[in-house]
Amino acid sequence: MIMVTGANGQLASLTLHELAARDIPAVGGTRTPTEGQRFIDFDDPARLDLTGISTLVLISAGYAEDDRVITRHRTVLDAAARDGVAHVIYTSLTRAGDHLGFALAHRVTEQMIRTSGLPWTILRNGLYAELFGALLTWTPAGLESAFGDGALAAVARGDLSAAAAVVASDPPTHRGATYDLVGEPITASDVAARLGVTHRTIGLSEYRARLLADDTLLAFQPPMLASIASSIRHGLLRDTGSDLRRLLDRPLTDALGVAADIAAAMRPNGM
Ligand SMILES: NC(=O)c1ccc[n+]([C@@H]2O[C@H](COP(=O)([O-])OP(=O)(O)OC[C@H]3O[C@@H](n4cnc5c(N)ncnc54)[C@H](OP(=O)(O)O)[C@@H]3O)[C@@H](O)[C@H]2O)c1
Q1: What are the residues whose beta carbons fall under 8 Å from the beta carbon of 91, sequence distance 6 or more?
Q2: How many whole angstroms from 256 Cα to the centroid of ligand 1?
Q3: Taking every annotated instance into account, which residue ranges of this chain make up the domain NAD(P)-binding (predicted)?
Q4: Which CB contacts under 8 angstroms, 24+ apart, belong to 187-192?
Q5: How far, in Å, is the centroid of ligand 1 from the Cα of 10?
Q6: Does 6 contact ligand 1 (Cβ within 6 A)?
Q7: Ligand 1: does its nearest atom lie under 6 Å from the Cβ of 183?
Q8: In the chain, where are the structural domains located?
Q9: What gap in Å lies between CA 232 and CA 239, rounded to an integer?
Q10: Which of 13, 39, 41, 59 to mutate to test the pocket of ligand 1 (most atoms within 8 A of CB)?
Q11: Which pLDDT does position 145 carry in this prediction?
C-alpha cells in the first residue's frame, strides 16, 4: 500500500487524486484524519504507525525552523525503517534552490534518506507557479514585487503531484534517482502583461521591511521570503530542465497561466 503524508495539504491531496485516477490504491496520512485516512503527525513519534505501508510518499513538512523540520523528517524515516517500509519518495527542493532559506532542511533530509538503508527516490521540486503568483502584490498602478527582471522556472503544483504519482506507481524503476522538477522560466512582468497591467520592482530592503512589518508572518518567514526574492531577482532559479517532462511524458502545464490566475484571484476590488 502507498501512503502519502500531509494528506490534507495541497500537494498530497493532488497526488492522492492522481493515484486514484490511475486506479492505484493509496492512503492519506494526516494529522486530522477523516474516514479512510490514517493519523500521521511527525511531531507525535509515539503514535507514528507505518505498518502495512510499502511505499511512503513523504511530503516535506516545512513551515518551521530547520531543527523542527529536520526532527520531523528524522522521526518519520526512523518509523519507516522500523515498520518495514520498502521505498521512500521525498519531495525536496530543486538543486538551484541551494541559496534559499529553507534549503538546508531539505538537504539534511536528503542525506538522512541516502544513509537510512531504505530504498529511495528524491523529487527535487521547483517553486510553485502558484507561489510566484501569490507573492506579487497589487497596487492601484498594477503589480509590484522584489523579483525585478529575474525569471523563475516555475512549475504548476499539479505537475509535481503527477510526477509523485508516476514514481509511486512504480518505485523500483526510480530507485536511487534524484529528479530535478522545474518548469519554464516566467517573470513578474510576464504575469503583469498576461493580466494587462504593469509591474514595478521594489528593492530588497523595502521588501524585507514590509515583511518584518507584517505581523501575520512567523519569525522564520521574512528571511525565507527575502531569500526567494533575491534568488529569483539574481537569476539563480531561472534554468529549466527535462526531468519533469520526461517523467510526465506530456507537455507541462502553462506555469504563466497558473501564476496569472492566482494573481488575478488576489486582486482587490477596485484595483
Ligand atoms: N515548492 C514550493 O514552491 C513550495 C511552496 C510551499 C511549501 N513547499 C513545501 O512543500 C510541502 C507541500 O506543499 P503543499 O503545497 O502541499 O503545502 P500545504 O498545502 O501547506 O501542506 C503542507 C502539509 O504538511 C503537513 N504537515 C505539516 N506539519 C506536519 C507534521 N507535523 N506531521 C505531518 N505532516 C505535517 C500537513 O498535512 P496535514 O494537515 O494533512 O497533517 C500540511 O497540510 C510543504 O509542506 C512545504 O514543505 C513547497
Answers
A1: 11, 57, 58, 59, 60, 123, 125, 160, 164
A2: 23
A3: 6-127
A4: 187/147, 187/149, 187/150, 187/151, 187/152, 188/132, 188/136, 188/143, 188/145, 188/147, 188/148, 189/149, 190/256, 191/132, 191/133, 191/136, 191/143, 191/256, 191/259, 191/260, 191/263, 192/136, 192/142, 192/143
A5: 7
A6: yes
A7: no
A8: 2-265
A9: 11
A10: 59
A11: 98
- The HSE-up count of residue 255 (CA atoms within 13 Å, CB side) is 27
Amino acid 71: pLDDT:
98
Cell reading at 225? 521570503
From the alpha carbon of 41, which atom of ligand 1 is closest? 32
Which residues of the chain register pLDDT less than 70?
none
* pLDDT for the residue numbered 271: 78
- Closest by Cα among 212, 186, 222, 188 to 202: 188
**Residue 270, pLDDT score:** 77
Q: Is the CB of 252 under 6 A from ligand 1?
A: no
Ligand 1 touching residue 11 (CB < 6 A): yes
Ligand 1 neighbourhood includes 43 CB (under 6 angstroms): yes
Question: What pLDDT shows up at residue 149?
Answer: 98
pLDDT tens sequence across 53-99: 999 999 999 889 999 999 999 999 999 999 999 999 999 999 999 99
Specify whether the CB–CB gap between 96 and 182 falls below 8 A. yes
In short, whether 59's Cβ falls inside 6 Å of ligand 1 is: yes
The fourth-level CATH superfamily of domain 2-265 is NAD(P)-binding Rossmann-like Domain (3.40.50.720)
User: What pLDDT does residue 200 have?
Assistant: 98
